[in-house]
Structure formats: C-alpha cells, structure tokens
C-alpha cells in the first residue's frame, strides 16, 4: 500500500516538474541556430541493449550522406561501446544525473549542429533545459507535444519496435534504404578466453535468469526450475548460466550444488564482453534480460525471451528473430518474472528448440 502511494506521489511530482520545464524552457527550434553536417544522438540512458538495437544507424547515415559526422552523448561507462565498436565520430561523456551547469557546458561544447536526436518518449525538465541550450537546426524525438522538437516522430512511430522507430529517424535524416542488422562488439581477448574454455561435445543453450530490477530476476529456486526444464525437455543440450558480477556467487553455488556435468558457467566472467562471447559460442539463448536478448538477436541466435506483462515494453523491445519465442509471466501488481506459466514453458521449449535447426549463425 505504502509503495503504491509513494509511486503515485513520485509520478505526480514528475508531471509537475515536466510542466514547469515546458513553461521555462520549451521553445521552437530556430533554423539559424545550427549548421548542417553533424548529427548528435543523446544516449545517456546507459542501457546496453538499447544501444545495440540502434547500432546500425551510424553506417546507415554515412552511406546515405558521405561526410556526415555522427556524434553521441553517453555515460562514461558506455563510452567505449560507441567510440570503439559502433562507429561514433566523437563521444561526449555525461553523467547519468548531470546537473544544470554540466548540461549547459555540454551544450556549449557541442557547438553548432544540424540535428539533435533525443528518443525518450517523455522528456523531463533537465532534458528540456539542455535542448534550449543546444545550437541546432533540428531536434528529432518521440515527444510530439514539445515545441522544441520539430522532427516529430511520436505519432508516426506509434506501435513500432524501436528498430523501426530509428528507421523512421534515418528516413527523416535522408536515408532512403538501409539494413538494420544489429552490430555486436567483439573484444578479441574476451572471445579467445571464452573459446578456450568452451565445451565442444554438445550444443549449449545460454541461460540468463537475471534482469534489471527485482521484478525481472528469477529466484534461485526458479532458476533451478528453468534449468531442470531445459535439461529434461531438451536432453541433447548443455546449459551455460550467464551472470553479472552481483550474481556470480549465486551462480557458482548453484552449479556446484547441481553435480550435473550438463550444467556449467564461465567463472571468470566479469565484463559484458564475456557474456557476448558466451552467447556467440552458444547455439541459442533463453533470457529474462532484454540486453542479452538483443545481443542474441544481433548474433543471429534463436532466442526464447521471458517477459513480464508489459505490452508496451514487449512492443518496443521484443526479440526480432525468425526463431524467437516469447513467454509472459502472470503477475501484474506487482510484476514478477517468477510467475511464469511453467507448464506452458515445458511444452514450448522443445518445439522452439526444433525450430532452431538450420539457423544460419553469424560468426563475426
């Protein structure tokens, strides 16, 4: 009860701040403010999976408009991805919770640009402040209610997956045809270490039971239940458990207690590149986490995504693969991935696995 009240109060506060931000900072873009030839993407949300979904746009813009400069604003933790692997011409690092002075300095450092892209569905007061300071010809975004956004893509993109939303952005910026295949980074040191460790005698399904937030994390008991289903329903495979540093001890303990040669993990996994390397080696992926789902899709792996009942999230970020399956948990208030329809999962797993035969995997 108290959590619901707190959530309602926070929502009301956010709405009030947005309205204040609109009153203070929302203003129409003036064409004279910027110069053509530079596009800047605001990606300070620091979400790895989101970056993978839009990773193709750098090449698409350059192929359509040779000489264009495509820059990115992101957090220090994500800078390496855009700078070293996705092809940003320049990366501006910005803390996830930057202050107004930092945002004003960032806007000054950007200089004069053609288009600023901000794809949050509803911009907050700090976003509006930042937009008011940038010297740009255009602002592209999904928040059609704002005067500051003149390339309005919200209504045009309603109901679309985020791949298609970014495709509409590309069209608005002059792209007539492009491929939207995801670009997944390959870090040789991590790839070589995982390859040397990886078993080769049986196909492997990578399993990730840990998403962001409590509602998207399987309990140890339910992760064991998922593993048992896989090993029972698909007897010809092994399972590799993926984990982030905060779940390492639990996974190592689970594997040790199982005493099952068909269940293993890569104990030295510390970086997202280790997870990428393991998914690359695996035959398929089962995951509650959208970041690893997008990595799997980018590597052309059959994916079985386990999602909470959030229609908008699934519509925006669901797996786009010919051999993708999705199963929705049952609890809605609050959402809880542990309330999966387990009997249905047991029935669908072997059918999904049969569909993976003949999938042409990418090796890059």
From TrEMBL:
Record carries keyword Glycosyltransferase: yes
UniProt superkingdom: Bacteria
InterPro entries, A to Z: Glyco_trans_9, LPS_LOS_Heptosyltrfase
Keyword field: Glycosyltransferase, Transferase
Matching PANTHER family: GLYCOSYLTRANSFERASE HI_0523-RELATED (PTHR30160:SF15), TETRAACYLDISACCHARIDE 4'-KINASE-RELATED (PTHR30160)
Protein name: Glycosyltransferase family 9 protein
């Amino acid at each position: 009860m108290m959590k619901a009240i707190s959530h309602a109060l926070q929502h009301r506060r956010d709405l009030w701040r947005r309205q204040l931000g609109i009153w203070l900072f929302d203003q129409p873009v003036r064409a004279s403010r910027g110069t053509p030839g530079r596009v800047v993407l605001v990606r300070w949300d620091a979400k790895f999976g989101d970056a993978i979904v839009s990773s193709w746009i750098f090449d698409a813009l350059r192929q359509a408009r040779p000489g264009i400069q495509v820059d990115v604003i992101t957090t220090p933790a994500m800078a390496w991805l855009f700078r070293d692997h996705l092809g940003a011409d320049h990366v501006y690092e910005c803390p996830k919770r930057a202050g107004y002075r930092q945002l004003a300095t960032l806007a000054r450092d950007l200089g004069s640009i053609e288009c600023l892209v901000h794809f949050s569905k509803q911009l907050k007061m700090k976003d509006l402040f930042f937009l008011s300071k940038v010297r740009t010809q255009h602002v592209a975004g999904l928040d059609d209610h704002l005067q500051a956004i003149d390339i309005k893509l919200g209504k045009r993109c309603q109901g679309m997956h985020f791949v298609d939303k970014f495709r509409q952005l590309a069209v608005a910026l002059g792209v007539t045809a492009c491929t939207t295949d995801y670009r997944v980074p390959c870090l040789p040191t991590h790839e070589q270490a995982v390859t040397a460790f990886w078993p080769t005698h049986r196909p492997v399904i990578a399993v990730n039971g840990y998403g962001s937030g409590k509602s998207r994390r399987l309990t140890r008991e339910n992760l064991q239940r998922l593993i048992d289903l896989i090993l029972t329903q698909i007897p010809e495979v092994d399972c590799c458990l993926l984990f982030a540093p905060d779940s390492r001890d639990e996974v190592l303990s689970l594997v040790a207690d199982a005493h099952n040669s068909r269940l293993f993990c890569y104990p030295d996994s510390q970086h997202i590149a280790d997870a990428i390397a393991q998914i690359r080696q695996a035959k398929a992926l089962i995951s509650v986490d959208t970041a690893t789902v997008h990595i799997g899709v980018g590597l052309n792996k059959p994916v079985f995504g386990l999602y909470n009942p959030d229609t908008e999230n699934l519509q925006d970020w669901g797996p786009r693969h010919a051999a993708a399956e999705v199963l929705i948990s049952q609890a809605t208030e609050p959402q809880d991935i542990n309330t999966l329809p387990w009997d249905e999962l047991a029935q669908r797993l072997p059918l999904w696995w049969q569909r993976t035969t003949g999938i042409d995997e990418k090796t890059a």
